[in-house]
Each structure stands twice: as C-alpha cells, then as structure tokens.
Specification:
This protein is α+β, with helices and mostly antiparallel strands. The protein contains twelve helices and 22 strands. The strands form six sheets. Strands 1, 2, 3, 4, 5, 6 and 7 form a seven-stranded antiparallel β-sheet that branches. Strands 10-22-21-11-20-12 form a six-stranded parallel β-sheet, sandwiched between helices. Strands 15-14-16 form a three-stranded antiparallel β-sheet, with no helix packed on it. The mean pLDDT is 83.
Length: 472
C-alpha cells in the first residue's frame, strides 16, 4: 500500500501553544481562503474531539535532504477550546496524543467558538470577525454594559463610528433577544456630532441645559471664581466664608452649625457678589472697628453675628483708614462679575440655575421626560466655553454617581434581600475624554479627574458605568 503523504502535522504541544509543520502552504487551505496570522485551525483528536486554535505566527525551517534544500513551514497556534458532540467548550486539556490531522477551520466551526459561549437571550451583537465579516460576534450584553468600556484609537480611526454603532445596536435591540429595558445612556458630545446618529434621543445643549451651580463642590467653585494659579489665600477665604454664611442664611432646617463649604445646599450668587463687594470696601475708625452705613443711614458694625446684612445692599464705609480686605478683592470682584454677566454661562450661573430642583436636574439628565421617554440622552457641550468644560462634565458625572449611590441605598433599605445593584443602570459615554480628563496635574482638571476616577473605581457597584473614547 502506498503511504499517504502528510501535508500538516502537530510536532509539539505546549500548555498554551501548539507547533505544526506544513509541507506546502498552498495545499493547506480551504478553497480561495488565505491563510494568515489570526486564521483558525482545527486539530482532530482520537475521540471525535476537535481542538480549535488560532494562528499566532509563521516561520520557515530550511533543512538539507539528499543534497537538496527543503523548506518546511512552521505554524505556532494558540488553543482556544474543544468542539465535542457539536458543542464548543473553552479550554484545551482534552487533546489526545498524538493528534490525527490538522486542517483550516470552516466558517461553521468558527461560529461555534463565539455563539456557544453566550446564551441566545443574552447575545448582544454589534461586530464581525476582522478576518471574516460574514461571522458576527456576540458578547454577553449584561456583562458588557455592566463593566467599563474603552474605545481607543488615533484621529480618524473610527472611534465615534464604533461608539455610535454599539449604542445604536443596543437601542435597536431593545425589544429583541438582548433587552436594554430601563438602562440609560448619557453621551457627552464635545463636537456636536451625535444628534444625527440618535434622532429619537433626548437632546440637550446649552440652550436648554440647566445645572444648579450650588451643587458645585469647593474645588469647582474655586476654579470658576478664583485665579487658582495666583494662589491668593485672601480671596479663597472670603469665597468660602461668604458661601458658608449664605447657605446658613437660606437653610430653613436645624443644625446650621454643620453646614460647610461642600454642603449641597442653595446659595445666591448675586448675594455673594454683594457680600464680596462690601468686604472690599472695609475701612476702620479710631477704635479699629470696621463700620458702614446702610441705605437708611444707620450705622452698622461688622461682626459674625450681623454679617448677613452684607448680602443684601451696598453699604457705605464710614471709616477713613484702610482695614481688613480694603481693595484687596478687586480682581476677585471683577472675575466674579464677568462670570455672572457671561451669557454663555447662563446654563450654570443664570437665574434658572437658582430655582431648578435636584429632582428636575435628574429628570433632565436621565431622559425621563413625559414628552420623550428615550433610553439615550445626548448632551451637546460644543457651546460650553473650554475653560469650564471639565467642571461641567465633573458636575454632571458627580450628580449621576450620587443618584446611583443613594438610589441603591434606598432600594436595599426597602428590601434587604435585593440582589440587583440598580434596576436603572446608567452608561456615561465620555467622548474625546482626553480633553477634560487628560493625564495632567493642573488644578483645572482636578475636579473632573476626581469625579470620573470615582466612577471608574466604584460606579459598577451602583449601576453606573463608563465608556471612554479617547486618542490617549
């Protein structure tokens, strides 16, 4: 009997690698399919099991036989799992030695690698195999959206397209196998490019975005109203003092002594401006008291107990000698006045920002509006001045995180046996993330980095996850 010539055979098996020799690569392929790094192989065992492997690299071994140079192609492949009884199982411990033969895998066999790994009701499919676009690749949708996601690549590589495709597919499949249900996606749109991709989304830009400035934390307030690079302790002290006093003034509850700079309580910016203006006009008389006259012509002496009067009217200093903060707060006043008069900042510092409640802020951001109950909210930040872009992103991110935290706490208090972290999970999509959370130690990016890092570290516990798209 003539012995059949072996074209490919396994010559070595390692825990994470299989070495295969091939006489002629031209014969070792299916039809017109090319063989390359990333192609799939099947290795037959002796018990009707097929080991699936993916090619990692090629090399050529040249030897001499009977005076002639013989070229042998060597393929190194990484084992993926076993197909046995028509079912793919990850892991490659069941390969019998020696294997019978090696062949390129068929499309149906490659599909089994991916389809068998995800239950049909949990399949979320938005991509194809790079080596064969006929093979669609599912992921477990619940696990995918319950973990942080990164889309990275250089300019023009297709990050925005990929991001849009993922979210569009999730929204389109709401009533399919993988159900989006109550999940909500919030997209920070820096270049105003996602409105056309999501025509049915809740769309917010600076014309209808309203954020409560009184929810800004101390770092964000200082970044907006102070020249942080100048490191002026005088200005910082007055800003803190005025805001704390004004919060206590407007707070109607008890325990006012517990109110501090970071308390999420209302304060009035116009009253803060008046307070700072009055403190900038401090004068003293001979007994070193700082005094003013009010609009009624009455004498007014400044101390902590009656400091509230500085919020409501322009007081006339009666002293003659400079004292306290006299003239030292002029730069602070100018900066504060410019911010309050800047119409581009009305969404954050305008009159509506004074009256909007926390409830209305959440409804706006989460998209639960009666007129359009959509799963996607697009926040167009292209009109936000760059100097406060990171603060705007920081404030919105922190509001969403705090919502997730307290909502979970309320649900678990109501039902201690609750198993789900959050029945309204939220995905925050940070497009062009390197613009407002760069790898920088500058003070202007500190608040946004802190807010987003907190979500990255703890957010999944409260149903808040990230999708970062960046060039960095």
């Amino acid at each position: 009997m003539s012995e059949e010539k072996i074209n490919a055979e396994v010559v070595a098996v390692y825990p994470n690698k299989i070495k295969i020799t091939v006489d002629k690569l031209e014969d070792f392929r299916i039809a017109d399919e090319s063989l390359r790094v990333g192609s799939y192989l099947k290795i037959y065992g002796n018990d009707n099991a097929i080991l699936m492997a993916i090619i990692e690299n090629f090399s050529i071994d040249v030897s001499e036989k009977e005076g002639k140079a013989i070229r042998t192609h060597i393929i190194e492949a990484s084992p993926l799992g076993i197909i046995k009884n028509g079912i793919f199982t990850r892991g490659g411990d069941d390969l019998t030695i020696p294997p019978k033969k090696v062949e390129p895998a068929t499309e149906d066999e490659i599909k089994k690698i991916y389809l068998d790994s995800v239950k049909e009701e949990e399949r979320f499919i938005f991509s194809s195999l790079s080596s064969n676009d006929k093979i669609r690749i599912p992921v477990n949708g619940n696990k995918f959206f319950n973990k942080h996601i990164a889309v990275v690549g250089s300019t023009g590589s297709g990050k925005s397209h990929t991001l849009s495709t993922i979210i569009q597919t999730a929204v389109a499949e709401k009533n399919g196998n993988f159900k989006l249900n109550n999940s909500h996606v919030i997209i920070f749109d820096i270049h105003s490019e996602y409105r056309s991709a999501f025509p049915n989304a809740n769309f917010i830009d600076i014309s209808n975005l309203v954020l409560p400035y009184w929810l800004l934390n101390s770092e964000e307030l200082e970044e907006i109203f102070l020249d942080t690079e100048a490191n002026d302790h005088n200005q910082r002290s007055i800003l803190k003092e005025s805001i704390v006093l004004n919060r206590k003034l407007h707070f109607k509850g008890a325990s006012k002594e517990l109110i501090h700079f970071d308390s999420p309580l209302f304060f009035d910016l116009s009253e803060i401006f008046q307070y700072v203006s009055n403190r900038n006009n401090e004068r003293k008389i001979t007994n070193n008291d700082i005094t003013w006259k009010n609009s009624k012509g009455e004498d007014f002496k400044f101390d902590e107990e009656n400091a509230d009067q500085l919020f409501f009217e322009k007081l006339i200093p009666t002293g003659t000698a400079a004292a306290g903060n006299n003239g030292k707060l002029l730069n602070f006043i100018n900066r504060l006045e410019n911010k309050l008069k800047d119409k581009r900042l009305d969404f954050l510092l305008g009159e509506k920002s004074k009256s909007i409640s926390f409830d209305d802020t959440l409804k706006q951001l989460l998209g639960y509006q009666k007129e359009n109950e959509a799963n996607v909210t697009v926040i167009d930040l292209s009109g936000v001045p760059f100097e406060i872009l990171s603060i705007t992103v920081s404030l919105i991110s922190r509001i969403i995180f705090e919502y997730g935290y307290f909502y979970k706490k309320m649900r678990f208090t109501a039902n201690p046996n609750e198993k789900i972290n959050n029945d309204i999970p939220i995905l925050l999509v940070f497009e062009e993330a390197h613009k407002y959370v760069p790898n920088s130690d500058l003070a202007k990016f500190r608040s946004s980095k802190k807010s987003i890092e907190r979500i990255a570290k703890e957010g999944h516990k409260y149903g808040v996850t990230l999708l970062l798209a960046s060039q960095r």
